[in-house]
């Protein structure tokens, strides 16, 4: 068998390149906790309206004891509910998404708020917004004829503004 | 060698492939125009999604499968110098696959299967769509059996001899496809068909996505292996040179087969039904499978350099100019490698576990696979077609200069179409939208790119027309042509090949272990935890 020296060197270099990429990915995952959204948690998508967590009056933003915020959202043809929502900037926000029908994807462009929403499962993503403004929330997985019409809006305001808006406490349904 | 029957077999497969390609290309142009929103009278989401679904099935499943089968039969026949084993069996496979295509085409064209070529349950298509798709795969299994039988026949008659490289690669692809198609076959047979026929009421979309991910990555290597086979075994000869290393080529094909299989979860990075650890494991495997492509790039370019220097090219880059750029196959590889560099870069972004969140399911993804599949993989199918058509029909190529113009226009059209597509993705445009309806300023930034893409689509459809026209006129030609496929010789004759580079026994065991590790628990978990299936949803 004949393997040229140049080829051996190149194979070594290739291995080095792939190794470098893998090291960076593993480093960012395990040292900095940067993960793809993974949350193996099942839910009966046909009974969301009866569930303790995703019934209609439970949706939207909820303040947690540690100052972070949990947002519960339902995706269904063709919208994300609640359709309007105001959230604070510079705050740890955990989104919990469920589908009431088919597979959807949700992406807020220019942010890392992106996940698939598979019926039967709860998708969870944690992020923080650094800039105030209107963020479109777009469905990015084909879900039927109205796929291109499936979107909503999230308004991000400064932390102080948000506190003022939510002084009287309770759910923020916009 | 009298191989008229083999020629007919290969040519018939090729015509189904390129006929489907021509039809799908026209649909592609319609789609890029429709989605731009500049031509209101064309707007119809029903037609759009029926077209997208059909375009995907024709390009991804029909063009590829029939091309690969036709190519494989002829490679087996000409490298092994054996007649195709049991021609009735081969034609039966062809008939089963074609019946499947026709059955699937009915609901597709009637808008009853607008679920895209990736199925997406709990969206439900007409049962005929799933049954047709299954028959297409079953037909391709006939081909796999033929390839493996012929490989064994030859090995039995030539013990300890190295299997000719092109046939080694083709057998590797047959084995790869059997492993690959098992995932989608399980999804279709145990989930989709019983559910679509009403035998079971619910379907677990998480399990369905996991099974589809089993297939979704290695299927692109099934499509790519004929292209790489041509890179290694046909192009060096056409360029006027030799293959730089036969052994490294075998190693690359083995790595492709072994490592393309256990890595499908990079399609599920953003999914909720699989855990971090499994995704990271598949991410590492995804980077391992870049190795055979790095090796291929090196060996193939080294082979081209040998040819360029033999043709009188001097200096560091002079050999590039000395290549026969007017040979369709050589031009195909040059343009294909250029697209591979950019498409490969995009692929590394997609493969990067966390960075993928930025581009997942955006227009970037559609741009990426059009560049690397529609570009690199398919342009070599064209190169092979231009080389094979005169041999198979016994008539000279109708217009060689049109072939050169066609390859350039395909490359230019693909660049003009996919560059804006990538940018649209970075600007947040979701994939597979038939129109832009978001009341947000972001969408204004999309418009110039939508316009540019239309020009790319126009160039591509003209190019597709030139290909089909040239092949058709060649077939009808009156002059005669005598020739046979010539395979490249390696610069160092293959001697003392270790059995692990000449046999797949060991590698099948390795694949079995890898698949058990990579997919065993991730599939088992659906039966261990309490899951809730979904009912049937129309589109």
Unreliable parts of chain A: none
Q: Architecture of chain B, CATH level 2?
A: Up-down Bundle
Number of domains of chain A: 2
Percent of residues in β-strands of chain B: under 5%
Total helical elements of chain A: 2
Structural classification of chain A? alpha+beta
Helix content of chain B: over 70%
What is the level 1 CATH name of chain B?
A: Mainly Alpha
Net shape of chain B: globular
Q: Average pLDDT of chain A, to the nearest integer? A: 92
What is the quaternary state of this protein? heterodimer
Classified in CATH, the superfamily of the largest domain in chain A is: Cupredoxins -  blue copper proteins
Q: Look up the CATH topology of the largest domain in chain A.
A: Immunoglobulin-like
- Total strands of chain A: the figure is 10
Question: Cα distance, first to last residue of chain A?
Answer: 71 Å
Transmembrane segments (chain B): 12-33, 54-76, 88-116, 128-154, 174-199, 211-231, 251-269, 281-308, 328-349, 369-388, 408-428, 449-472, 506-528
Keywords (chain B): Electron transport, Membrane, Respiratory chain, Transmembrane, Transmembrane helix, Transport
Domain Cytochrome oxidase subunit I profile (chain B): 1-501
Pfam family, one (chain B): COX1
Explain the overall architecture:
The complex is a heterodimer of chains A (174) and B (539). Chain A is α+β, with helices and mostly antiparallel strands and 174 residues long. Helix content of chain A is 19%, strand content 31%. In chain A, the strands form two sheets. In chain A, strands 1, 2, 3, 5 and 8 form a five-stranded mixed beta sheet that branches. A five-stranded mixed beta sheet of chain A has the order 4-10-9-6-7. In chain A, a hairpin with a 5-residue loop joins β1 (60-63) and β2 (69-76). The N and C termini of chain A lie far apart (71 Å). Chain B has 539 residues and is mainly α. Chain B has a single domain (4-528), classed as Cytochrome c oxidase-like, subunit I domain (Cytochrome C Oxidase, Chain A, Up-down Bundle), CATH 1.20.210.10. Chain B is 71% helix and 0% strand. Chain B has 18 helices and no strands. Chain B starts with a helix and ends in an 11-residue tail after the last helix. The model of chain B has no long low-confidence stretch (mean pLDDT 96). Classes of the chains: A alpha+beta (174), B mainly alpha (539). Chains A and B meet through α1, β7 and β9 of A and α2, α6, α10, α11 and α14 of B.
């Amino acid at each position: 068998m004949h393997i040229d020296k140049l080829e051996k060197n190149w194979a070594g270099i290739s291995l080095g390149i792939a190794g470098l990429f893998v090291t960076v990915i593993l480093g960012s995952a395990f040292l900095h906790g940067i993960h793809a959204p993974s949350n193996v948690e099942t839910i009966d998508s046909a009974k969301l309206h009866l569930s303790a967590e995703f019934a209609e009056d439970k949706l939207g933003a909820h303040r947690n004891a540690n100052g972070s915020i949990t947002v519960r959202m339902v995706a269904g043809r063709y919208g994300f509910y609640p359709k309007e929502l105001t959230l604070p900037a510079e705050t740890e926000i955990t989104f919990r998404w469920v589908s009431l029908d088919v597979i959807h994807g949700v992406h807020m462009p220019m942010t890392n708020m992106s996940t698939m929403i598979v019926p039967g499962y709860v998708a969870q993503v944690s992020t923080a917004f650094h800039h105030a403004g209107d963020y479109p929330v777009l469905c990015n997985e084909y879900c039927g004829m109205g796929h291109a019409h499936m979107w909503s809006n999230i308004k991000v305001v400064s932390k102080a503004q948000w506190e003022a808006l939510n002084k009287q406490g309770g759910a923020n349904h916009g | 060698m009298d191989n008229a029957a083999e020629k007919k077999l290969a040519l018939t497969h090729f015509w189904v492939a390129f006929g489907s390609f021509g039809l799908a290309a026209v649909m592609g142009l319609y789609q890029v125009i429709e989605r731009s929103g500049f031509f209101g009278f064309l707007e119809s989401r029903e037609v759009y999604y029926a077209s997208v679904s059909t375009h995907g099935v024709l390009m991804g499943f029909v063009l590829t499968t029939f091309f690969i089968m036709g190519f494989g039969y002829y490679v087996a026949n000409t490298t092994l110098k054996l007649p195709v084993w049991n021609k009735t069996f081969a034609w039966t496979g062809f008939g089963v696959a074609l019946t499947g295509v026709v059955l699937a085409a009915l609901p597709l064209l009637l808008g009853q299967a607008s679920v895209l070529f990736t199925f997406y349950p709990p969206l439900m298509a007409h049962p005929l769509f799933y049954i047709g798709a299954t028959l297409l795969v079953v037909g391709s299994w006939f081909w796999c059996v033929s390839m493996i039988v012929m490989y064994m026949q030859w090995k039995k008659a030539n013990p300890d001899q190295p299997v000719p490289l092109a046939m080694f690669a083709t057998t590797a692809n047959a084995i790869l496809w059997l492993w690959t198609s098992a995932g989608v076959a399980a999804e279709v047979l145990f989930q989709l068909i019983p559910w679509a026929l009403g035998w079971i009421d619910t379907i677990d979309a998480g399990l369905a996505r996991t099974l589809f991910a089993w297939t979704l990555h290695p299927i692109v290597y099934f499509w790519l292996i004929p292209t790489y086979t041509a890179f290694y075994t046909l192009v060096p000869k056409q360029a006027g040179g030799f293959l730089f290393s036969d052994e490294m080529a075998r190693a690359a094909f083995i790595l492709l087969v072994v490592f393309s299989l256990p890595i499908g979860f990079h399609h599920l990075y953003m999914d909720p039904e699989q855990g971090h650890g499994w995704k990271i494991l598949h991410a590492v495997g995804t980077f391992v499978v870049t190795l055979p492509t790095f090796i291929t790039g090196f060996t193939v370019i080294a082979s081209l350099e040998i040819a360029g220097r033999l043709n009188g090219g001097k200096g560091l880059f002079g050999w590039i100019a000395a290549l026969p750029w007017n040979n369709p196959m050589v031009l195909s590889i040059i343009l294909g490698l250029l697209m591979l560099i950019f498409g490969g870069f995009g692929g590394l972004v997609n493969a990067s576990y966390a960075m993928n969140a930025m581009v997942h399911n955006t227009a970037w993804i559609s741009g990426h696979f059009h560049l690397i599949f529609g570009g690199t993989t398919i342009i070599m199918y064209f190169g092979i077609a231009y080389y094979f058509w005169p041999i198979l029909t016994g008539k000279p190529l109708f217009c060689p200069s049109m072939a050169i113009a066609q390859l350039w226009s395909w490359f230019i059209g693909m660049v003009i179409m996919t560059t804006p597509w990538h940018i649209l993705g970075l600007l947040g445009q979701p994939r597979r939208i038939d129109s832009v309806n978001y009341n947000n300023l972001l969408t204004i930034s999309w418009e110039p790119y939508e316009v540019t893409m239309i020009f790319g689509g126009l160039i591509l459809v003209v190019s597709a027309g030139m290909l089909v026209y040239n092949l058709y006129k060649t077939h009808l030609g009156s002059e005669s042509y005598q020739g046979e496929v010539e395979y490249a010789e390696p610069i160092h004759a293959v001697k003392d090949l270790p059995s692990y580079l000449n046999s797949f026994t060991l590698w099948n065991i390795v694949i079995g272990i890898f698949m058990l590790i990579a997919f065993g628990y991730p599939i088992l978990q659906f039966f261990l935890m309490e899951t809730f299936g979904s009912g049937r949803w129309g589109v």
